[in-house]
Write a structure and sequence with these properties.
By secondary structure, this protein is mostly helical. Helices cover 57% and strands 3% of the residues. The radius of gyration is 23 Å and the shape is globular.
Length: 411
């Protein structure tokens, strides 16, 4: 049973975004695990997983492919394509933008999760066509993440099947060694064309609820991408920038960890996402607030409480990573980072309340966002190690002390 679904059904902190990728123990009504070969061995036991060399003349050629899964995909392909065409016809049609297309991908990706939430039965088998939709959406999702990252950083990408297929080739999505059962090249091209251009002549009419859910998820993902780019920027600043020389880890373990992560941080993006590229669906006030958070220009009263707390904590002993640089500058940086964390989490959680209202769940149950919408921060643990205090549930530096023992358990 999905732990995220159990939490949703029992009133524990949960989110739709968490459930979408928590389907490892879930089966479709044809007896196949939604996660296919990513499911645990005990789940896959007795399920046909015939592996053959991939015959397609691309990067997959000669790699082992799960032909049992491909047989199922082929059997439900036309049904799923009609479903995708139906969403696209109602979401932008021929004049769709990249948000419309992201909503269509997320609608497909979320089919099993929405089925389970709607049935409210943790043992309800997911329709096989929904399982195939999920597989299709999962293949497209990584490409859409890359595309929306580039849009957030200022790129102009035409909304065409050719541009999308070019990005697939560049990122080796669908045709890479890890995607050996994504279907034949014609199936992939047809699916991409249907996603980008739509196929009104083959479309079916879908309930408006589908579009509401798809667009709520799309806004969550778009905001999550801005957050991830922002976090990645500060991760690089802390561990691969000038500030790194001012950090004094408490012991050899932390020193080694710092140098290992510094090598990783050096590969992270250094550019901040652009405020004027924030999703158009946001209100002007929200766009202004998040835009200011991205650039560090938020009103001082929004980050001053953390600034004062961090500045005081930097002067106290007990931090597991000492800091010898400009403490005022570091305190302001940490405070602005915490403000951005709160701001993005708040807006993404607000969309979660809308999703719950549509699905008939209590919008006031605490939210636990999944990585689909809000990636765990990479820079935050290093801010916490220097400050010596964790970011609390409130989003302020008012949590527990960071100790070496707890740190080792986490990392």
């Amino acid at each position: 049973m999905s732990q995220a679904l159990e939490k949703a059904l029992t009133g524990q902190p949960w989110s739709v975004s968490e459930l979408i990728f928590d389907l490892a123990d879930v089966f479709d009504d044809e007896g196949r695990p939604i996660a296919e070969r990513r499911a645990r061995a005990s789940i896959r036991a007795g399920v046909p997983m015939e592996m053959k060399e991939c015959p397609y003349s691309d990067l997959r050629q000669g790699k082992l492919m799960n032909t049992s899964a491909l047989v199922q995909v082929s059997r439900h392909y036309n049904t799923v394509m009609a479903d995708l065409a139906g969403f696209r016809a109602q979401a932008g049609g021929r004049n769709a933008n990249w948000t419309d297309i992201l909503a269509a991908v997320l609608d497909q990706l979320a089919r099993p999760a929405i089925h389970l939430l709607t049935s409210r039965d943790p043992h309800s088998p997911v329709p096989a066509s929904d399982a195939v939709s999920h597989k299709l959406g999962a293949g497209f999702f990584g490409v859409m993440q890359t595309l929306h990252e580039r849009l957030a950083l200022g790129a102009e990408i035409p909304v065409t099947a050719a541009a999308f297929l070019s990005l697939i080739t560049e990122t080796q999505a669908l045709i890479g060694a890890g995607e050996v059962c994504a279907g034949s090249p014609p199936m992939i091209r047809n699916a991409c064309t249907a996603l980008i251009e739509g196929s009104p002549e083959h479309a079916i009419t879908l309930p408006a609820q589908r579009l509401t859910i798809g667009y709520c998820l799309a806004l969550q993902v778009e905001l999550g991408i801005f957050w991830r780019l922002y976090d990645r920027h500060y991760y690089r600043q802390l561990l691969a920038g000038p500030d790194f020389s001012h950090q004094r880890p408490f012991n050899k373990y932390l020193t080694d960890l710092a140098h290992t992560e510094a090598a990783s941080a050096a590969l992270a993006g250094m550019d901040l996402p652009l405020g004027d590229r924030l999703p158009e669906a946001l209100s002007p006030a929200c766009r202004a607030k998040l835009g200011a958070a991205l650039t560090g220009d938020a009103a001082p009263e929004l980050w001053q409480p953390d600034f004062k707390a961090v500045l005081r904590l930097l002067e106290e002993p007990g931090s597991v990573v000492g800091y010898t640089g400009d403490k005022v500058q570091f305190a302001q940086q940490a405070a602005c980072y915490a403000h951005a964390f709160r701001s993005f989490r708040q807006e993404i959680s607000a969309k979660e309340a809308e999703l719950r209202a549509v699905l008939g769940y209590d919008p006031h149950t605490p939210v636990h966002l999944g990585p689909l919408a809000f990636m765990p921060p990479k820079a935050l643990p290093w801010f916490e190690r220097v400050v010596g205090i964790r970011l609390g549930d409130s989003g302020y530096f008012d949590g527990s002390r960071v100790g070496v023992r707890q740190l080792q358990a986490i990392t």
